[in-house]
Amino acid sequence: MAHYRQTTGFDGIVESDYQTALDKTFGTSASQAPGRVQDGRQQFTLNLKMVYKDFYVEGMYLNKDKEPFVGPQFALTDESDIENNYVFGEAGYKKTFEEKFTIKPRLYYDQFDDDFFIESLPDGTTIPNTSGNPVTFPDGVLGNGRVSEKVVGTEIPFDYQLLDNNLLTLGFEYRLVNQTNVRFSSNFIPNTLDPLPQIQDFSDEFPFLKEATRRIWSLYVQDAWDITDTVNLTLGIRHDQYSDFGGATSP
Questions:
Q1: pTM attached to this predicted model
Q2: Percent of the chain with pLDDT over 90
Q3: What is the DSSP letter of 23?
Q4: Residues 174, 152: contact at Cβ < 8 Å?
């Protein structure tokens, strides 16, 4: 299956914004208000599933591209772009033995890639730096943040039909979560807000997120009982052991 969608979004007009107030303070005329909000968005999705006997493979790719409406500083701008990419893949097997015992092992992979290019204030804006001195940005205040999150895991559930109306499930799961490729660049020095002639990379000096790895081991058991045709009782408990902060048990 393939799906594509595009829209210009809400056709709203902003009469005045945060830059309007800055213009009054510093005697500038950088504001794009009155102006239309930036609400365009585009989405492309691909889905695939294949089954052969007891085996299956499925996957999905999703790309989303959108504008930030009015931006993080509540000012109209025209260069911002927020892009998200998502990839998912899974392979599994399902086999029932003697109509009572079923095993359903699976392997899966997720990857999220976020790329936020934000013009938070428009061309020609003047703002105070951290020392209180006014500084001007001919190309606007620009920042670009990127990050990837990858998840690889496996799960092995076992189902046993105790009675015609009672199903017992025991399962094990392992997940490896990795937050990586954290990048940040801007056309200003982050700790002083002083402007730069072009965008520079500050990923090492001022990372906006930490690169991190988490491992999760999980064990669960559940019993589902069809008491009547319309009443079902499900009882279960799950324990997750996280590599970074310990364990958690939940019903």
A1: 0.83
A2: 95
A3: H
A4: no
Tokens standing for residue 137: 């940005």
Tell me the residue ranges of DSSP E strands in 31-140.
Answer: 35-36, 41-52, 55-66, 81-93, 95-97, 101-103, 106-121, 125-128, 134-137
User: Residue for token digits 């906006």?
Assistant: 208
Tell me what the mean pLDDT of segment 125-145 comes to. Answer: 96
152 touches 112 (CB < 8 A):
no
Q: What is the pLDDT of residues 184-231, one digit of tens each?
A: 999 999 999 999 999 999 999 998 899 999 999 999 999 999 999 899
Give φ, ψ of 25 to 5 degrees.
Answer: -70, -45
Helix (H) or strand (E) holding 18: helix 18-26
pLDDT at 240: 98
Strand partners, 108: 90, 153
Quick check: 75 and 117 in contact, CB under 8 A? no
Beta bridge partners of 239: 219, 249
Partners of residue 214 on adjacent β-strands? 177
Q: What pLDDT does residue 99 have?
A: 85
- Chain-centre distance for alpha carbon 219: 26
User: With pLDDT > 70 as the criterion, what percentage of the chain qualifies?
Assistant: 100
Q: Which two tokens stand for residue 250?
A: 């939940």
Boundaries of every domain in the chain: 2-250
Residues across the chain: 251
Q: Which of these, 12, 11, 16, lies nearest to 29 by C-alpha position?
A: 16
CA pair distance 85, 111, nearest whole angstrom: 8
For the chain, how long is the longest CA-to-CA vector? 82
Give the closest residue to 236 by CA, choosing from 248, 250, 226, 247.
250
